[in-house]
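Worked example 3 (structure in, sequence out).
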């Protein structure tokens, strides 16, 4: 699937510097991202707001990317992000139960 063209991070950009804005305000910054086929996502470090939790947000939650402002806007509220399953890098690369949990939370079984 991949990120929509309007939301692509351009080569040479440093997404780990980008702020993440939920629909109701600032939530954190991008920690990691990937554009692997069928698994585009960003990992958001919510920092001290909820004690450093890292959550995975599917590319489909991204509304807009502003490379000049280094900001990504997502179509989730702070509470939705706060309540999302925590990102687990060990489970992310092969645990189908983990992907089913994420897909169930975001309403997309393809995660």
């Amino acid at each position: 699937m991949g990120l929509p063209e309007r939301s692509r991070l351009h080569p040479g950009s440093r997404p780990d510097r980008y702020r993440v804005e939920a629909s109701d305000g600032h939530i954190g910054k991008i920690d990691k991202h990937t554009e692997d086929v069928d698994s585009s996502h960003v990992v958001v470090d919510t920092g001290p707001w909820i004690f450093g939790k890292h959550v995975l947000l599917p590319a489909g939650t991204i509304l807009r990317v502003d490379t000049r402002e280094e900001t990504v806007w997502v179509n989730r509220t702070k509470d939705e992000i706060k309540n999302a399953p925590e990102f687990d890098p060990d489970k992310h690369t092969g645990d189908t139960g983990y992907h089913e949990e994420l897909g169930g939370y975001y309403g997309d079984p393809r995660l």
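Notes: Residues 1-7 have pLDDT under 50 and may be disordered. The chain has one domain: 5-106.
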